[in-house]
Amino acid sequence: MFTQLLSIFIIIASGYGAKKFKVFEQKNASVFINYALCFALPALIFDKIYHVNIDTTLINVIATGFACSMLGAAAIFLACRFLKFNKATTVSAVLLGMFGNTVFMGMPIIKGFFGEDAMNEVIFYDQLATSIPISIFGPFILAFGAPAKVSLVQNVMKVIKFPPFVALILGFMLRGVPLPKVLFDALTLFAQSVVPVALFAIGIGLGFRSIKSCYKSTAVVIAGKMLLAPFIFILVTIVFGVNFGQIWMIGILQCAMPPMVLASAMIMKAELDSQLAVAAVAVGVAFSFVSLPLLSYVFSLMA
User: Fold this and answer.
1) In the prediction, which pLDDT does 150 show?
2) How far apart are CA 266 and CA 96, in angstroms?
3) 280 and 218 in contact (C-beta within 8 Å)?
4) Fewer CB in a 10 Å sphere around the end CB: N or C, the chain?
5) Tens digit of pLDDT for each residue in 128-183?
6) How far is CA 184 from the centre of its chain?
């Protein structure tokens, strides 16, 4: 895991350095993210879903991870109320606490921990516990802090047209249909670019200047998302006597991922707490180099 974390750090730092040396501007990060979301990630999702073996354990892991993330977000909401944050900050903090970076950070970390065979579970977890839920519920959550009205029909249409969702559905529909190997060769080439391109984009988009002005709200988000939620997940596995195997470890790691870049972008687009949106992602990425090795140590004790 440490080698993989170092690789992630180098790629993110390269993106951050490219911005500092004016090779790219911060706004250019959206170009890389759009490529990853519209081309590379759909190729990866289709390939993995087409070949994935789905069992009840995987569904239980995803449901548990999603529920624990929601509990963590609820704790963030209560903390924001206790600290008397304004509505925009509270709504922003809750959304950042609900959804983690389960693809762009989750993939390389879990691959380094468990190998290529774990990628099917990573993709399935991301789609059912992160990407689809944020596409559906994100705008409704943001509506509590923004004056603009939310259209259910428009949100449903956005989800249906979202390239990763289209790839997910096509992957399921064509599972029993023999497809030529050359197609999967091309998809593999696309898929191999997901992680480096996305991490480089995260580096370009990182900003640490806003941390001073929102350190309290940032700390609340990080504590709820990256510490409390996975702690609840671990507690659930202990209480229910779960057979603590690889698939449950994957679920806990996914639950502990830093705040999602897409959630940050949605907050800035809704003109809520943009400083918190940037700071939470930046601090979350940095904190993951501490929290994830700590989880690795916990796994060694529980195994």
Assistant:
1) 60
2) 10
3) yes
4) C
5) 999 889 888 888 888 887 666 666 677 777 778 889 889 999 999 998 899 999 99
6) 25
